[in-house]
């Protein structure tokens, strides 16, 4: 009898764990395409606090990238995820994190990862007619989840 209860409890735990994991998975929505990449926004990550919007963005490159002097010459990546905070009222932004990946045949390797502090004097302006302008307009006008704090 106890073994049956244990099996049922274990099965319930596994099912609830799978549901919880799928509910926090990213929901990448295509926003725009530029010369050599596609840009997506994670709809699950969009959080709003006052006039600020925090969102993860993903750039998928059509060919490998290598940006000197940050990477050794043989290090390339084809996917980049960035965490932005857009200040919708001021049309400015901060980049909080950048992580680059080399994805090949279903496996993903982190090439680099950088984090930056959010300092008001380091706000950047959103340039008109730029990729950031496209994402800014999208993030600042989509229905958002209020931040929990």
Number of strands: 9
What share of residues is helical?
10-25%
Number of domains: 1
Q: Largest beta sheet, briefly? A: 9 strands, mixed
Number of helices: 2
Briefly note the structural class of the backbone. Answer: alpha+beta
Estimate what percentage of residues fall within beta strands: 35-45%
Distance between the termini: 46 Å
Please state the CA-atom Rg, rounded to the nearest Å: 19 Å
CATH architect. name: Beta Barrel
In one word, what is the shape? globular
Give the full name of the CATH homologous superfamily.
Surface-adhesin protein E
Show unreliable segments.
Answer: 6-23
Q: For the residues shown, what is the average pLDDT? A: 80
| CATH class label | Mainly Beta
CATH topology (level 3) name:
Lipocalin
SSE topology string: HEEEEEEEEHE
List descriptors:
Lipocalin, 149 residues, alpha+beta, 2 helices, globular, nine-stranded mixed beta sheet
Protein architecture, described:
The chain has 149 residues and is α+β, with helices and mostly antiparallel strands. It has a single domain, classed as Surface-adhesin protein E (Lipocalin, Beta Barrel). The protein is built from 2 helices and 9 strands. The chain has helices spanning 2-23, 131-141, and strands at 28-34, 37-42, 47-49, 52-65, 77-87, 92-104, 107-115, 124-125, 145-146. Strands 1, 2, 3, 4, 5, 6, 7, 8 and 9 form a 9-stranded mixed beta sheet that branches. The longest helix has 22 residues, at 2-23. The chain is globular and about 40 Å long. The model is unreliable at 6-23 (pLDDT under 50).
């Amino acid at each position: 009898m106890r073994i049956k209860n244990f099996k049922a409890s274990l099965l319930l735990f596994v099912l609830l764990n799978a549901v919880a994991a799928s509910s926090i998975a990213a929901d990448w929505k295509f926003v725009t395409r530029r010369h050599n990449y596609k840009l997506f926004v994670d709809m699950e990550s969009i959080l709003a606090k006052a006039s600020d919007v925090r969102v993860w963005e993903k750039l998928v490159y059509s060919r490998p990238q290598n940006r000197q002097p940050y990477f050794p010459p043989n290090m390339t990546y084809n996917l980049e995820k960035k965490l932005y905070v857009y200040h919708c009222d001021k049309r400015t932004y901060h980049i909080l994190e950048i992580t680059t990946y080399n994805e090949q045949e279903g496996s993903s390797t982190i090439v680099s990862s950088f984090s930056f502090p959010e300092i008001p004097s380091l706000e950047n302006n959103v340039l008109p007619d730029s990729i950031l302008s496209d994402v800014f307009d999208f993030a600042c006008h989509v229905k958002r989840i209020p931040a929990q704090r």
